[in-house]
Amino acid sequence: MARLLATSLFLASALAAPSQLPSYANRYDFIIVGGGTSGLVLANRLSEDPNLTVAVVEAGDSVFGNPNVTSSTGYGLAFGTDIDYAFQSTPQEHAGNKSQILRAGKALGGTSTINGMVYLRAETSQIDAFAKLGNNISWDSLLLYYKKAEGLQRPTEIQSQLGATYEANQHGFEGPLTVGWPTEMVGNNFSQTLNTTYAAMGLPWNEDPNGGHMRGWNVYPQTSDPSANLREDAARAYYFPFSGRANLHLYLNSSVQRITWEAQSNTTLPSASGVAYKDASGAEEQLLANKDVILSAGSLVSPLILERSGVGNPAILKQFGIEPKIDLPNVGENLQDQTTGSYGTTANLNLTGTSDYVAYLNIHDIFGDDTEQLREHVQSSIPAWADEAVADSGGTANRTAIQQLFEIQHSMIFDDEVVISEVLVKAPSEGSGSISYWGLMPFSRGNIHISSANASAPAYINPNYFQLDYDVSQLVGTVKAARRNANTAPLKNFLPTETSPGLDVVPANAPKEVWAEWLKSTYRSNFHYISTAAMMPKEMGGVVGDDHLVYGSANVRVVDASVLPFQVSGHLTATLYALAERAADVIKAAHA
Ligand SMILES: Cc1cc2nc3c(=O)[nH]c(=O)nc-3n(C[C@H](O)[C@H](O)[C@H](O)COP(=O)(O)OP(=O)(O)OC[C@H]3O[C@@H](n4cnc5c(N)ncnc54)[C@H](O)[C@@H]3O)c2cc1C
Ligand SMILES: *[C@@H]1O[C@H](CO)[C@@H](O)[C@H](O)[C@H]1NC(C)=O
Ligand SMILES: *[C@@H]1O[C@H](CO)[C@@H](O)[C@H](O)[C@H]1NC(C)=O
Ligand SMILES: *[C@@H]1O[C@H](CO)[C@@H](O)[C@H](O)[C@H]1NC(C)=O
Ligand SMILES: *[C@@H]1O[C@H](CO)[C@@H](O)[C@H](O)[C@H]1NC(C)=O
Ligand SMILES: *[C@@H]1O[C@H](CO)[C@@H](O)[C@H](O)[C@H]1NC(C)=O
Ligand SMILES: *[C@@H]1O[C@H](CO)[C@@H](O)[C@H](O)[C@H]1NC(C)=O
Ligand SMILES: *[C@@H]1O[C@H](CO)[C@@H](O)[C@H](O)[C@H]1NC(C)=O
Ligand SMILES: *[C@@H]1O[C@H](CO)[C@@H](O)[C@H](O)[C@H]1NC(C)=O
Ligand SMILES: *[C@@H]1O[C@H](CO)[C@@H](O)[C@H](O)[C@H]1NC(C)=O
Ligand SMILES: *[C@@H]1O[C@H](CO)[C@@H](O)[C@H](O)[C@H]1NC(C)=O
Ligand SMILES: *[C@@H]1O[C@H](CO)[C@@H](O)[C@H](O)[C@H]1NC(C)=O
Predict the structure, then answer these.
(1) What are the sequence ranges of the domains in the chain?
(2) Which of 194, 299, 403, 488 is close enough to 562 for a disulfide, judged by CB 3.0 to 4.6 Å?
(3) pLDDT in tens, 530-564
(4) What distance in angstroms lies between residue 136's CA and the mean position of ligand 6's atoms?
(5) The architecture CATH gives domain 67-240+334-590
(6) What is the pTM of this model?
(7) Residue of 351, 326, 309, 323 whose CA lies nearest to 491
């Protein structure tokens, strides 16, 4: 491992000195902007062909030896350090005008170096929804790529006894991304305690929530290496073992400012010539692309790079003196995120080890007999919600299309019965218990735009949390499920007293308004920002097609969380790794 580190750092520092580069330096077939979760999958797969040259331009540094990253139990250690962008949202007008911290990883490996390591995919109907928008993507076709990415470490006998289960036909075992169960799992019969508790709540055990059907509870796997006891991030999986490839060059500490363009004739689509970036010293440099420029800078950066390159809403670009190149008003629109919080108790059990226990609930589990009424309320609200979404987009969004998107989402929730609530129980320790909860399918739509032509200036980022009433209902229903969970035996015997919110703040039979007030003063972002360059038809508000090409450009693509048109009920990386694997095949085929 130490030698691997030395090699990669040597490569990185060699690259800082242009005189040591081979003659093709500064000109590559592909330039990948952002060496993060998605970008490194592309870098790896495109550079498999020794005839293709690939540059990765990454704003952060290598974090191979950073203990805040490598620790498989250290979630949160990296927050607020220099590898966390910690962007700020605008004041959230539907939640007390408080702004939120929006975390994202600034490092080789991107956000996979600081995230919670949860490996959970999606509901089949959420991936099939891509096809409803005209994309050639379905659960069955993406499953091949989930498997291609994954290197599942089968649970040991002890891990199996402690609740780790999987269905072999849903998994990949040879892929670069090591996935496994925690090295030290929680014992003390705790998974049986939960099994009995959920049975009493009417929620079944789910043998494998990664098979496309997520309802139930499970001890899920994570992106970590159980035998080495290390976090598995995109760099460890897709870059370091391959860093010796002569046709793959990495530029660290290098922040892309904008795309540069070929001189344009009036008969061809605008074609990117390369990118302009700032190196570690702050000097502006340029790289040239023979084939494509691929943006993988994340959903809170890729749309901004498009805008600074003249791709976006001309009215916004002109405000900052940027000459419009491609009129694509929905760049940065459709921003979606989930909201989360923590429910707390005292505990009379002090367990050691880490295991991850997830309960996924659908609309009936959350709303019971009120489900039909809610179905009708949401259905009849869609026209008004579409009006509100259009207004909040400054009139940019296509009302008919928003309405169609909301209808699809309604159908996923009420017809397909995808899970809408996630409840994560932490094993009680040190006298306290905690349960995290979040709503999975919010309707609210926000946006992100540049606030200056200067790439260093903070962007305008408005997730628009709780814009629409369903999102409040969904989160209230979810936190009530967390409270129900803590108050169901046998778990309840170990968690004697609620500390957060506490019955004095939110009484046992509190109405929705009381819950909502507490939630809005304590929630945070769930960090699942998506859809700021959505994969759907241009007239519906899309920015890329299913080949990831930006509409109206000859050779600019976006491959990262920006392209997801809807939330998935899993966490994002499992699906992003799979989508990037698919994108690599699509891009190779386009240039074959
Ligand atoms: C705190 C937190 C916890 C999370 N927990 C989980 C979890 O448990 N499981 C899960 O699956 N998902 C989780 N997520 C979400 C998931 O990690 C991200 O959605 C995913 O990693 C995003 O991948 P990406 O490829 O879109 O972008 P990223 O991985 O963020 O990659 C973008 C890269 O681009 C670089 N970059 C940005 N701007 C520039 C520029 N101008 N020039 C050059 N490079 C640039 C960045 O430094 C970064 O390396 C979590 C997210 C956060 C923030
Ligand atoms: C990146 O920048 C950091 C901080 O300035 C520096 O410590 C590090 O050596 C740089 N890395 C490379 C590869 O140049
Ligand atoms: C690379 O290019 C050479 C020369 O054009 C060709 O002979 C070879 O087959 C190519 N290799 C691959 C993997 O495409
Ligand atoms: C790790 O994080 C802590 C704060 O959690 C910080 O003080 C420390 O500098 C970080 N270490 C590295 C190597 O960044
Ligand atoms: C939020 O800020 C806006 C604009 O400053 C203001 O109009 C509104 O009244 C504020 N709302 C709350 C709840 O404070
Ligand atoms: C759709 O994708 C499949 C692979 O999943 C591929 O075989 C097929 O050719 C694609 N169809 C089109 C029209 O691109
Ligand atoms: C939970 O109980 C079910 C039977 O009701 C059983 O099949 C399953 O293996 C149990 N899971 C765990 C982790 O004990
Ligand atoms: C384990 O937990 C289950 C469910 O609470 C209980 O029935 C069983 O007796 C426990 N077993 C032991 C050995 O504590
Ligand atoms: C642009 O296209 C028109 C025909 O539509 C042609 O007459 C004109 O010469 C072209 N201009 C350039 C600069 O190519
Ligand atoms: C909990 O257990 C840990 C490890 O066994 C121990 O260090 C700690 O003192 C215990 N704390 C309490 C409150 O019992
Ligand atoms: C760009 O913004 C950064 C941060 O706000 C500032 O330090 C820098 O001076 C600005 N550059 C220009 C050219 O205005
Ligand atoms: C708005 O969306 C609808 C439905 O997708 C589409 O038919 C129509 O062309 C779009 N309108 C515009 C102006 O793009």
Answers:
(1) 67-240+334-590
(2) 299
(3) 999 999 999 999 999 999 999 999 999 999 999 99
(4) 6
(5) 2-Layer Sandwich (3.30)
(6) 0.95
(7) 351
